Amino acid sequence: MDGCTATLILTFLLMPIDGTFATRVCNTSVENGQSRIGILVSPIISESMTHEIEVYWSNVSFEPSEKILIMKRDSPQSDPVVISTTTPNGPTGIQRTRIKTKFLPSSELSFVPRCVFHIARQTPEGGIKEMDCVRTQPTWMKERQHILGPLRFSQVFLPGTHNSASYARENDAGSIFSDFAVNQNVDIFGQLIHGVRYLDIRVGHYPDTNETWWTNHGPFYRSVSLKTVAEQVKRFLNNTEEIVIMDVREFPGHFLRGNRSLRLSGFSDISTHRKLVSYLENEFRDHLFLRNNRGWRVTLNDVWSSGRRLIIGYEHTRIAEEHASVWPCVQHQWGNVRTIADLYKHLDRIESNDSDYRVRPRSAMAQLTANFMDVISNRLGNLRDMAYSVNANVTNWYSTLWQYSANIVAVDFVKGTGIVETAIKANENRHLRCLY
Length: 436
Prior knowledge:
Number of helices: 14
Low-confidence stretches: 1-25, 258-266
Radius of gyration: 22 Å
Helix content: 25-40%
Mean pLDDT: 88
Strand content: 15-25%
Shape: globular
């Protein structure tokens, strides 16, 4: 899809079906806060694992001949240098820049926010109207504790990832695994440093391997060991004061083995689940926020005051009831849709029906879902193609229509979206409007 096509799709789908904005406003005297300019890093990769930078904007009142500049510093001490210039063709759009980039490896990421790019608006006369820094977000929640602390988790907009542990590695480029099993371009630690606070982890049991517990995408693709995920999450928690929700779900592999009647019925072996919980308790003993009689009614300040900032959701009701170390999972709201228009309808329905009285957090699953025939016929392309077709739209929808209703939004290829920046700004806007 070229830049012009993307712009047309964005412009069309940003208009609500009934022609009105369905937002809940507490203080209408505050400006709407719905204008955005940002960058996306395309999930589409070349053989060298490079990605194209795209600039997007929504609901911005540009002067005639005004330009958007993307700039980058060669070093922290140098002045920013313009690497791309875009002339907007309307208040909402997206444009490819032809600028290629690679993600920073985890070893180069810092626990201090770091500017990656700068974005500026240039007036027709050549002056700089405003400039913003596109940065990593390792500490965004703690920086806003005064806003977020009194709230329940269901009242906060949290950026999340879908199939978080199915991430690309260097040798995945161009492979069938990269095409149909990989959902993220950065590892767990990188996702957290960039601002993700909800992780969707699918865990399988493989007792015949050295590690035993592995992360999966579906029943056949085994990604990285659960030990690898645990080490990355602990490294992040040990060096920040952020709060993380990690859902453990699906349970492929040997969970259904060893008992023929269980396999036939589709139910998993409860003893295997108990072993997994014991493993999680041991790995995260210093980080687990234990569930109390308030359950999901706790506030973020309750979590911060405990000194333990990891909540693990577990997709097995009996296990969650038995163990205070794991919580009932976040509710996944799947659309199982195959077109952008149907994804919009699904998300509009769940956001329009959101309730202030809801306690359990929910996650809008903001991606297309291919069926078997779609994969065989390649009608929707691979997972990267599908993410590329929807991510800019999802960013704009949640920047405008649903910033006041969103709870958790889980995306594929998170850096191909602006969902982290959107969530941060939306939480600030909610505070200004509602003053909880």
